[in-house]
Amino acid sequence: MTGSHELVEIEGGQLPPGTTVGSLAVDSAQIRTAYWPAADPARSKGTILLFSGRTEFIEKYGEVIGELIDRGFAVATLDWRGQGLSSRAEENRFKGHVNDFAEFDADAHAFVKQFVIPSCPAPYYLLAHSMGGNIALRYLASADCIVDRAILVAPMTGVHTKPFPKWVARFIAWAGSGLGMKDRFVPGGAGIDPTEEKFEENAVTSDARRFERYKSFINTEKDLALGAPTVGWLSAAFRTMRDACAPESLAKIKCPVLIMSAEGDTIADSDTHAPVAQAIPLGEICTVSGAKHEILMERDDIRSEFWTQFDRFVSPAAEANAMPQEA
């Protein structure tokens, strides 16, 4: 283990300079945070709050963070409890476990109240991926939400459960939790070592270079890696997908929300994205052709569609706030 919360550096990691890395105490967990100021702080367009997905970590988004800085934004992000270099409750660090997504809610709210509001320039925009998109929906519906606009990339509003039918996966989660097996890997998960995954076997990107960059990070610092989820995580995931996507919850979201759905997603269930977008008062959806689950880690031709939509959706509002600050 690194013994600190500092960023892990690799050749070609594309981590922008000028970051401030910190740690927040949330309940019994230590949450790693990072902040990059805008390239020209006096003309900042605001701050992007970056919520990553399950298994992900701050360093993986170095390229994306650089692209956001180039667009005039500051960026604030975190490692969720149980992944990256935030604290993990499980002795086996490959286990992806949480008892309830309320724990992630606590991380998100503490991150905003204790880190973002005191230290990061407004206005605030939210960019979230996969599991982070689910946490984002919960945050956006809360009374404490400070976000002006949000983009959810392949959000976890539904999941594929192959090789099991969804009803079988739900039964495994329900029965396993009821029998006291919450902290056990889901069936087949115990043998998964993310540091040994081959590009040809991956389900998240068709870009070999970006996949190998991710692998370089977790092979350089194995404490960044996370394997399969536990039965408890699966049970919590089914509950949060039900709750976060309930019409009465989505109706509470006041800001504009853009869902970016991946056409070739085999992890998040893209069929659930349109109904969610329709239930959000100011929601809209765009499907990215040819994309696997991790749109932001895809090939350049696929990512370009994301950035076109990002600029369309965010930039007009951001430009209005990018006024020179008086001395």
Commentary on this structure:
- The mean pLDDT is about 95.
- This protein is of the alpha/beta class.
- The chain has helices at about 60-70, 100-120, 130-140, 165-180, 210-220, 230-245, 245-250, 275-280, 300-320; strands at about 20-25, 30-35, 45-50, 75-80, 125-130, 150-155, 255-260, 285-290.
- An 8-stranded mixed sheet has the order 1-2-4-3-5-6-7-8, with helices on both faces.
- It has a single domain (about 20-320), classed as Rossmann fold.
- α1 links the parallel β3 and β4 (about 75-80).
- The chain starts with 19 loop residues before the first strand and ends in a 6-residue tail after the last helix.
- Helix content is about 35%, strand content about 15%.
Summarize the SSE layout with pairings:
Elements: E1 20-26, E2 29-36, E3 47-51, H1 62-70, E4 74-78, H2 102-119, E5 124-129, H3 131-140, E6 149-153, H4 166-178, H5 208-220, H6 231-244, H7 247-250, E7 257-262, H8 273-279, E8 283-288, H9 300-321
Can you summarize this structure?
The protein is of the alpha/beta class. 34% of the residues lie in helices and 15% in strands. The relative contact order is 0.15.
| Full CATH superfamily name | Alpha/Beta hydrolase fold, catalytic domain
Strand count: 8
Kindly report the spatial arrangement of strands forming the biggest sheet: 1-2-4-3-5-6-7-8
SS-based class: alpha/beta
Radius of gyration: 19 Å
Largest sheet: 8 strands, mixed
List keywords for this structure.
327 residues; alpha/beta; Rossmann fold; 15% strand
